[in-house]
Amino acid sequence: MGGPTAMLRPEEEKMFEGQPRGFPFGDFDLEDVMLPEGEDMGIPSDTDEDNQEEEISSESGFGNVLVVDNLPQVGPEKYEKLTAILTKILSGSGRIREGGLFHPVDEASKMSKGYAFVEYENVEQARAAQAALNGYQLDKAHKFAACLYDEFERLAKVPDAYEEPGERVFTPGENLLDWLTDKRGRDQFVLRYGDESEVCWNDAAKQQEESVYKRSFWTEAFVEWSPRGSMLATVHRQGVALWGGKSFERLQRVGHPNVQSLLFSPCEKYMLTFSEFPAGPQGRPHFLAIVWEIRTGKRLRTFDGPHEEYAVGAMARPDRGMRWPAFRWSGGGDAPVLLAHMKANAISVYQAPEMTMLDKRSIKMENVQDWEWSPAAPDATLAAYQAEQGNLPARVVIMKLPSREELRQKNLFSVAGITMTWHPQGDYLAVQVDKWTKTKKSTTTNFELFSLREKDCPIDMLELANKSEKIQQFAWEPRGSRFALLHGDGSRPTVSIYNMKDNKSILSIYNMKDNKSSARGVTLLHTMTNKQCTSLHCLNRLHMPTLQGGHNGVVEFWDCEEMTLLSAGEHFMAQEVAWDPTGRYVATIVNAAAAMENGFQIWSFSGQPLYKTAHDRFFQLNWRPRPPSLLSEEKQKEIVKSLRKYSKRYEEEDEALLAQADTEFLAEREKQLSEWRNWLAAKKAAVEEREAFAREQLGNRVSAHEEFVIQQVEVSVVLDVKEEPAQKL
């Protein structure tokens, strides 16, 4: 091929190797490139504030080398012992290369110099080790100072003389609860599809989403709202960034290389970030968990090391790793903020902000296998399961912290497994108990139901008539006393709905013949058999969208006050269901795991489909949570009773919005029509000018239609077909 590319010099050919031929590199000047205003196209800028803490360059070849200072200075008699201790500590966050620990000794005094160089297998391990070891307290007199070798140049530029910083003018940030001031009381959700992340209003009145903020490459993994919705977290290779306010400005960022998971405290004051590293050919899998104070970005505590100590009971994976979340925050309210994790025969609890162990000792529990915090309680309440051991029975215990007072405990026998499910407001605890039969070849199932708001925390037991029937799902009704069971072994299971409070007429569809009840204080309200259902999603009045799964995403909305089917619909290929925080709307989702039909559909609480949006490579839809109401329960009940008084105004507002939407639609259509007419007039004028020029130049030799072939075509369209029986002759 010819052209400008043929004029390239040999060094230019090498420089532009792999580029499409024909580009005029010879006359190309990079300074001539103009990017769109306000868009950097992913190219870092020298003046960009976001790049002040960019990844450390490892061009020196020592990016995987860590320098650890403030080590004890010892003589020859203690040198080997100290080196062995250092090797054990330093290898906790990564594998040290063979001969990769250099612990220098002063030739004159024969004393160690108090620092060491550590070479890890790769840069990521060195960074993780630096995060874990910096500030590590070896003993009372020695606290590690860990620094990457490639940071030396930056640290060398720090002046020796202290320069007092100038006064900084305080600039108030944006209101983090700004979205709650929406006059129409709309909710927001965040979408993640392709390389885009977008925050939108759910505009049900106009039956569409309204974009609030959109950004490309905003996250490298996933996004997550804080529990009260004031912040949005984005995950990156270097760590986690937090965004909020009306313009979603960056509020905070914390450094945790290769972070994989994060967990906010319910009060939004603290955050835990987590990463794990697979085992090498001869090593063990290890992890790094860091607790941060969100407001200051201060690191409060670091947990790191091999998984073995933490991967216990239900927290252990088949690959010897640790299930997430192995660390869990206590519920909200006025209770102290606690973080806990399980280990062999104990549960360790730490209190924020000091992050010191509660009472300086773990809670001893022999053979503990699982535990769960109550999601909402005046005090931090913990439920734990201890498996059978020798002649000791299995045990479920409910404990109040920090007092360690046992509220209730229950002994169980022949236990094969246990699943604990807290009520969203902490009013009840359901314990699903799978028990071995006498032959140990099969299991039966029953439920132990704890009522924590009643005196002495009474326990009800619920058994199904078919004890061996598989329990597929248990779901509590939020802000209520009912729960639903999805049970059965086939593709069409049964849905049963129970109430914990009504003791007047205790019914059991399974034991009605002998007038016996399978639970002391549990009422069976309704049973739906042979349902195409794979999951239950309950909110407010226990409306239950039920998804068939697979191909036909059948969605049913049930009202459990009247036990009636409100409506049924279908969202083809739907895999997920997500209620908004108010219970007014629900989204059904088809994510990128499906090969087609990616996107979401919004429904009203009664099952009316509102709008549907498609996105290629659709990953996430997360509703923005709302903070707890500032109104008392009495005031909220009063407002609910007075809704009819406000309904007329709301209906008028909805009608005005629909009229506005129609007006905007008509105005947009008129605008498009006007643009089309202007374009058509311009084209006609251009054609007339061209024809006039042709006639002027060619005279009678030009024909206005010589460039066109006119054909007359007849087209038949069937508008309707109606069949009627022929009359007999």
TrEMBL record:
Entry's localization field: Cytoplasm
SUPFAM superfamilies given in the database record: DPP6 N-terminal domain-like (SSF82171), RNA-binding domain, RBD (SSF54928)
MF terms (GO), sorted A to Z: RNA binding; translation initiation factor activity; translation initiation factor binding
GO BP terms, alphabetized: formation of cytoplasmic translation initiation complex
InterPro entries per the UniProt record, alphabetical: EIF3B, eIF3B_RRM, Nucleotide-bd_a/b_plait_sf, RBD_domain_sf, RRM_dom, TIF_beta_prop-like, WD40/YVTN_repeat-like_dom_sf
Occurrences of domain RRM (ranges): 64-163
Biased composition (Acidic residues): 28-57
GO CC term (a single one): eukaryotic translation initiation factor 3 complex
Keyword Disulfide bond on entry: no
Main localisation: cytoplasm
Entry's family note: Belongs to the eIF-3 subunit B family.
Free-text function comment from the UniProt entry: RNA-binding component of the eukaryotic translation initiation factor 3 (eIF-3) complex, which is involved in protein synthesis of a specialized repertoire of mRNAs and, together with other initiation factors, stimulates binding of mRNA and methionyl-tRNAi to the 40S ribosome. The eIF-3 complex specifically targets and initiates translation of a subset of mRNAs involved in cell proliferation.
Assembly behavior: Component of the eukaryotic translation initiation factor 3 (eIF-3) complex.
Protein name: Eukaryotic translation initiation factor 3 subunit B
Species of the source: Chlorella ohadii
